Amino acid sequence: MAGSPLARKDTAAAAGEAAPLLRVSGISVRFGGIVALDNLSFDIAAGQIVGLIGPNGAGKTTLFNCLSRLYPFTGGDITFAGTSLSAVPRHRIAGLGIARTFQNLALFRSLSVFDNILLGRHCRSGSGFLANALRPPRIAHEEEDAAQRVAGLVRFLGLDALAAAPVAAMPFGTQKRVELGRALASEPRLLLLDEPASGLNHEEVDALATLITEIRDRLHVTILLVEHHMSLVMRVSDKVVALDFGRKIADGPPAAVRQDPEVVRAYLGTGPATAAAGAGR
Amino acid sequence: MAALPTDSATARRNQWLGLALVVLLAAVLPFFLSNYRVFQLTLVLAYAIVLLGLNMLTGYNGQISLGHGAFYAIGAYTAAILMDKFGVPYWLTLPAAAAVCLVAGFLFGLPALRLEGLYLALATFALGVALPQLLKYKHFEHWTGGVQGIVIIKPDAPFGLPVNADQWLYLFTLGVAALMFILGVNLLRGRIGRALVAIRDQPIAAEAMGVDISLYKALTFGVSAMYTGVGGALGAIAVQFVAPDSFTIFLSIAFLVGIVVGGLASVSGAIYGALFIQFVPNIADQISKAAPWAIYGVFLIACMFLMPGGIAQVVGGAWQRLRRKPGKSV
User: Fold this and answer.
1) CA distance B207 to chain A (A)
2) Whole-angstrom Cα distance, residue B213 to residue B55?
């Protein structure tokens, strides 16, 4: 695959540390009387892999849903590559360069593995109903180009043999990979992974760790990873943000966050066995 | 549920070849049949266009409609009024009916965005029951002809072609149907078709991947109504008559029966469904004059049990088996 079809000019890296790719500054989310996110702030620099950890209900998925514009946030703002997300409608997020996977899988069950991933390219074209019905050569080429890029991704993810199969017939681990492929097909600059390791066995988690690093190194995608599997997070992340009850309790390099007394308390109530408990999953 | 039309190069060429062959066969058919049969087949083609449109909406996009008879009526009346009151040539009424129904469908689709499943079914049902009565409204009578309806004149073959009026109208309808099917297949096999299915299967993920759900759903409603309107206009020209009582809610239900029996989310299913809704009531009538609808009901239930994926799936499966080499097991 000379000159990977997925390669992309890395404009974000040129901007350097001065302007983070994603800046979450002081956002809050309330559901009735419950505070799901409380004045949360953190940055992600281009090219980083950032782990987001916290006990169940800490607000990790809530944050993802803010980034996808599924939930409205109050207070501060989220800016992505300098654009405030507060005025961006949901369906424009992917085109802006933010793609995500879902905790409990959200695949298009009646489509094939290939077509599921192909849908990820939707935001990379603006062709409408009339153009598609008439299908001039321009549209045919666009479709061919999309299919070729997706074929490259399918190889990258090792899904070649399954491409034509209906996605609903695939095992859970494969479906997670298809979702990852669908997100990557949109050529994101920031990839949001919501518990990619859940339901995977030990070897699969190892493979996932390699894959996540490869996605960053080869495809130049910045990654925000929500995960309970602590050894995975500690292994791949450049930086870890820990949440508890919607508040940020730690933010720093994995080794420092793992030792952080507040993080230890949040996970176990007390005691130093946090990392071991996480790795034991 | 059937997948999107396949997209590999050879499969696509075979599809177009197959389509060309079917159209060719269909084109010689009227020269071997009675005028009445030719008229019936003209209606089948008109219904097939309708069912393709309804299938885009209900089969592919997952929006149920119990009121497409209304769009069929709007298309039919548009054609009839233009021909009767304004002397517009019959072929020019089709783009007019298409445009009117596209706008009507889109406008109906906008508020329908708030409704899903059974609630959308009820809203469209309301449209279907209300429209025939509106057509009788006395202030519209000057245009619609009220209860009497409008009688229109069957067009003759142009350029002195050696075919009678029935044969010509059939061939004309066949040409229009082929065009509508080509446009429809193009629409469904690419980016838009995938997005429609994605909205049906998993709207949140579709939106997260960049599909503008509101716009697509409303546009699909419009395009679906447009197809239905073109079918309605062709049907009106073939029947040479429109009246409110031709477009009862039963017509809407028949369309829904057509896409389910033919095959949801399948293009060829529109043709099988159209044959079903045109001929099965006739066959039932021949079997029992006393209780034709009971016979029809038996046919319908038998279809659902024997072909739960629709006729298109059974035909598609048989075709696949035929094409496989004999040594391979299925």
Assistant:
1) 5
2) 18
